[in-house]
Fold this sequence. Notes:
The strands form 6 sheets. A 5-stranded antiparallel β-sheet has the order 11-14-17-22-19. A 4-stranded parallel β-sheet has the order 2-1-3-4, with helices on both faces. It has a 4-stranded antiparallel β-sheet with strand order 5-8-6-7, sandwiched between helices. The radius of gyration is 21 Å and the shape is globular. The model has no long low-confidence stretch (mean pLDDT 97). It contains 12 helices and 22 strands. It folds into 4 domains: 91 residues, Rossmann fold, CATH 3.40.50.20; 57 residues, Dna Ligase, domain 1; 124 residues, 2-Layer Sandwich (D-amino Acid Aminotransferase, Chain A, domain 1), CATH 3.30.470.20; 75 residues, Glycinamide Ribonucleotide Synthetase, Chain A, domain 4. The protein is of the alpha+beta class. The structure holds adenosine monophosphate and glycine. The site of adenosine monophosphate has 15 residues, from β6, β7, β8 and β16. The site of adenosine monophosphate (AMP) has 15 residues, from β6, β7, β8 and β16.
Amino acid sequence: MNVLIIGSGGREHALAWKIKQSPVLGKLHCIPGSAAIAGLASCPEIRQDDHDGIYGYCLANAVDLVVVGPEAPLAKGLPDFLAAKGIKVFGPSQRGAMLEASKQFAKEFMRRNDIPTADFTPLYSAAAARERIAANRRYPVVIKADGLAAGKGVRVCADEAEALAAVEDFMEKRIFGGSGSKVIMEEFLTGPEVSVMALTDGESAMLLPVSRDHKRLKDGDKGPNTGGMGAICPVPLPEEDMETIRTAVIRRFLDGLKRERIPYRGVIYAGLMLTPDGPKVLEFNVRFGDPETQAIMPVIKSDLLPALCACAEGRLAGRELDLTGETCVAVVAAAAGYPESPVTGRPITGLYDQPAGVQVFHSGTSSKDGGYFTSGGRVLCVSACAADAALARGKAYEAMRGIRFEGMQYRGDIGL
Length: 416
Ligand code: AMP
Ligand code: GLY
């Protein structure tokens, strides 16, 4: 089977690494891919928003399955376009992608389908938002930009001044462009967070092992929010919480898709908070998490490719996934200045000769004259597997200490 992955980041590097191990894989391709992914797949020079170019490439290379990594091509409807032309795609429809592209759509979908989530009010103008804030007596309160904002469009506001500042930034200064034309004001929840992903063909779902992302830049969950500074997988949860996740989140999500006739063949990611009242959904993403994927792929023992293919073909029912039984700790190394203004172009040393069970997945690197250079905010992710979390952490940090680039920043407490 020939497979084309869409994307270029650490998540796609991890997907490519896993799919490459499949005994049923023929040729692996990746658009646009990256210098690191080019070690595993052919990466033609086609843009990921060039739908015709991608379709032509699929025909020319007898691609049997397209796996879409990032949210942007999903929100732009690449799966709908390819599926209409008879190409099998792992990735939800454009309407399905609205669950990530619009917080309001997601919240109203959850409300309609009785999926546990924080109370919320959509606000359509800065004036309406100010009025609502003036009437609010409970802090903290959460303000979210409606549209895509690379994981940065959420502010937990401790008081009225912070709430007003969020409204000004999102709705007037438009720091996330059109994504801030609407905002959601949301009840503040407390509790530990976990990421739950499930593969689905729109009828059945296959839960992936639960993981946890660390979103703040600094140790102890301090500093600004980022795309994610590291992850651990699996995270053991009480059976009671797992049951709520299966029945009140995933089952109701699938029932909602059917009721609302939303085609969905791909992965659903629920960002959950384990509140004193049980698990509640903070957000849906319509793709694999990054960096969660870099921690999940190494602990999956089964061949992933047949499962991805079964999703795309609508025949997932009855499949199961075997895990290795190990724990994976994935630590992200970010560039100096990340997340505000990352410095790029710094040479990276120490990437080679990692011990067994350690993988380095590249998020933002490029290669020149046989060496790797930093080219993005999140640069790479060291994923280490071992019998337990403490051993995996030790292994990940030992590997990380051998890798160097100027201004490198990483957290010391991933998986703790
Ligand atoms: P989101 O992108 O919606 O997952 O939000 C990013 C982060 O903001 C989450 O991982 C939480 O830490 C925090 N957050 C989002 N919504 C809430 C909420 N309703 N209550 C408390 N914290 C929240
Ligand atoms: N790690 C969070 C995300 O992928 O959205």
